[in-house]
Design a protein that fits this description.
The chain is of the alpha/beta class. Helices cover 28% and strands 22% of the residues. α2 (38-48) packs across α3 (63-73).
Length: 163
């Protein structure tokens, strides 16, 4: 599907084992990697060598896999690039360490909602310092939070654009 959708792209697919890969790509490169381990992802980024235009996380459904992948890969996205996380409905399933309300920073939806709050809180005060109450200190943002231009949610999907 992705090879058809991105006919001119340099595509890289990762999975934890070759057995997990559901298709035989015609031109994409296959890589073995445990997406829950930042060091494995960093090693892969170094091997591939470069920044990315689009990253689509259609991998593991466990919360630590989705969050670790985002925190590790998003910094390697080019400015204006798109990061997509699929299958966010698993944030509500105990089977994947989710919970009924999708809450908490160790839950992917909870984590993304927190990022969205940070982006909007800071955005509300850009260029107008008097809009933030004088006794409320704006949060110290990480590079990751500062680099988010926009976040758009759909059913089980989140699209994040890098500033």
């Amino acid at each position: 599907m992705w090879e058809e959708y991105f006919p001119k792209a340099d595509l890289h697919f990762i999975d934890i084992t070759y057995d997990q890969m559901k298709f035989e790509p015609k031109r994409a490169k296959l890589h073995l990697c445990d997406q829950s381990k930042a060091e494995d992802l960093e090693s892969l980024i170094h091997k591939i060598g470069g920044e990315f235009d689009v990253i689509i996380d259609d991998g593991g459904h466990f919360m630590d896999q989705q969050i670790t992948s985002f925190e590790t890969l998003f910094p390697h996205l080019k400015s204006g690039g798109l990061y997509v996380i699929e299958d966010l409905h698993t944030s509500y399933w105990a089977k994947y360490n989710g919970n009924k309300r999708g809450r908490g920073l160790k839950n992917t939806m909870g984590y993304l909602k927190n990022l969205l709050n940070d982006v909007n809180f800071v955005g509300s005060s850009i260029g107008t310092p008097n809009r933030v109450h004088p006794y409320i200190r704006p949060p110290e943002l990480t590079d990751l939070q500062r680099d988010i231009l926009s976040m758009t949610f759909y059913d089980s999907l989140c699209f994040i654009v890098k500033r």
